[in-house]
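Sequence, please.
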């Protein structure tokens, strides 16, 4: 093999390569994706230099200085758009790589070249197909070091998988670490995760690690990447499970990816010392309550600490009922409007988790504290004998409830997307001609969301590419509008009006596409009508929607 081919989970701007290869627009002007990032980092001189050289056809490439980048040259290559593979796209994408390598062979003082995922962005190539073509062409590179820089972990996994397929087929040299080096990396990683009081990643990030491992193991024809443990599994079981995940990654040859994930400085870890102190049955909610009342009210803190000590979770139904009777009597006696929290002991609650039952008990204690009868509750709870409690060991699921966690992850995505969604709905209300009809009745609004989803639900990746394409077009329209304002004599009134209308149409389309994109992130099988109902109250609160009871259906 004439080149040392490496696939890196990093930005191409951090590659330190002599030559940077970017997927360019035919016009060679800055785009919205990696192209725009590279243009911005290189400075305005780059666009001034390449503008006279365009347009160029797909499959062709040109070279320019790197200007402000930490590189010598930039090669601008135009990839073909993917239309399902029936128009000879693969042949033209190969030609793009060949054009780049041909130019690179003629450049002086070049020892390294870095590529992005050519075609896998706005040109809609499936990443695994783009990866297969990239690997098969780049192994022919004559440059000493050839890098493919992929910050997206899922695209990185596809490229890494294709590279390993070539290695196993014997078409290129084996470049992965030797078994001895792999074992050393494994031992180094195990030493790292047991240092500085680390135990396991926090629940949300441990789940992300599981999803990464599950995806990578499927590319190796393997199965059964170990699941993360439940919140109260205890120190030993959590530690053992994380080590099992590392062993699995080493066995199926994706230890590098797991190592990179676990060493990320942004990763939040559970601390072993705190886990040992709080025991198996203290989740984060309980810990927050203990910390909150430690200085605020020592008596309340003492009672909460007693309730969760020695693996207690909640009283058995007979005694929990006694506690609730006392709470209800105090509610009536003091004429408190807020209801005393009921215990989770009826048959309908048989599937409720132990953690939720424990939190409900603490809610009852806090209620008593807020309404002045904590002493009576304290005395009653401490009178319960050891046999009157449920304990952690009695009913316990070690492995994380993945369905429950996926639901909480959806809630997190929904919360994080609220600003985007509110902005998009506001734009639709402003620009959509039928908005007045759909935004004044909740059920009509939900119908509007349903039709929107059916119209634009084309899959996560294609929809993302469509959004990027329209964002690029919006920039072009805005540039043209600005140019028409600065040079009014060069444009007629009709052209100026067309630019304004094109901007409005594109903004409206982008708003609709982004709403559907958020819905697909939540769940591709989401019920759009229910989503509309879920979001209605928030939009009413923001004065974007308003229930008009005078309107007839």
């Amino acid at each position: 093999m004439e080149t040392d081919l490496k696939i890196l989970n990093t930005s191409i701007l951090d590659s330190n390569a002599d030559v940077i290869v970017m997927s360019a627009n035919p016009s060679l002007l800055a785009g919205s994706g990696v192209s725009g990032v590279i243009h911005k980092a290189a400075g305005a001189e780059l666009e001034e230099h390449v503008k006279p050289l365009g347009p160029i056809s797909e499959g062709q490439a040109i070279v320019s200085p790197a200007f402000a980048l930490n590189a010598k040259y930039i090669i601008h290559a135009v990839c073909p758009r993917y239309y399902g593979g029936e128009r000879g796209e693969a042949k033209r994408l190969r030609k793009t790589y060949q054009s780049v390598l041909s130019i690179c062979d003629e450049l002086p003082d070049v020892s390294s070249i870095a590529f992005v995922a050519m075609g896998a962005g706005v040109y809609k190539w499936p990443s695994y197909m783009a990866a297969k073509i990239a690997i098969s062409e780049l192994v022919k590179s004559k440059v000493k070091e050839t890098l493919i820089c992929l910050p997206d972990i899922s695209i990185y996994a596809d490229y890494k998988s294709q590279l390993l397929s070539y290695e196993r087929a014997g078409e290129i040299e084996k470049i992965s670490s030797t078994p001895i080096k792999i074992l050393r990396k494994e031992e180094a990683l195990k030493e790292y995760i047991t240092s500085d009081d680390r135990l396991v990643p926090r629940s949300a990030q441990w789940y992300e690690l599981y999803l990464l491992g599950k995806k990578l193991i499927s590319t190796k024809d393997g199965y059964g990447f170990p699941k993360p443990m439940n919140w109260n599994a205890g120190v030993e079981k959590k530690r053992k499970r994380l080590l099992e995940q590392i062993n699995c990654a080493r066995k199926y040859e994706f230890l590098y990816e797991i190592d990179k994930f676990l060493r990320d400085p942004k990763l939040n870890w559970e601390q072993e010392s705190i886990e040992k102190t709080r025991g198996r049955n203290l989740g984060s909610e309980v810990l927050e309550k203990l910390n909150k009342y430690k200085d605020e009210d020592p008596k309340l803190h003492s009672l909460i600490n007693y309730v969760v000590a020695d693996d207690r979770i909640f009283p058995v139904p007979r005694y929990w009922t006694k506690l609730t009777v006392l709470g209800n009597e105090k509610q009536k006696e003091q004429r408190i409007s807020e209801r005393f929290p009921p215990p989770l002991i009826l048959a309908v609650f048989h599937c409720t988790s132990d953690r939720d039952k424990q939190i409900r008990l603490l809610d009852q204690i806090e209620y008593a504290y807020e309404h002045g009868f904590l002493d009576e509750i304290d005395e009653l709870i401490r009178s319960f004998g050891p046999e009157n409690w449920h304990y952690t060991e009695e009913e316990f699921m070690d492995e994380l409830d993945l369905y429950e966690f996926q639901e909480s992850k959806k809630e997190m995505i929904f919360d994080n997307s609220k600003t985007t969604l509110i902005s998009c709905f506001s734009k639709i209300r402003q620009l959509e001609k039928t908005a007045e009809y759909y935004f004044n009745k909740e059920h009509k609004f939900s119908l509007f969301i349903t039709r929107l989803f059916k119209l634009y639900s084309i899959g996560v990746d294609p929809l993302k590419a469509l959004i990027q394409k329209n964002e690029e077009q919006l920039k072009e329209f805005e540039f043209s509008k600005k140019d028409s304002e600065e040079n009014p004599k060069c444009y007629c009134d009709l052209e100026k009006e067309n630019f304004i209308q094109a901007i409005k149409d594109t903004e409206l389309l982008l708003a609709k596409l982004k709403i559907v994109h958020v819905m697909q992130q939540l769940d591709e099988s989401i019920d759009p009508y229910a989503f509309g109902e879920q979001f209605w109250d928030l939009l009413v609160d923001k004065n974007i929607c308003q229930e008009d009871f005078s309107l007839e259906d």
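Residues 281-391 form one domain.
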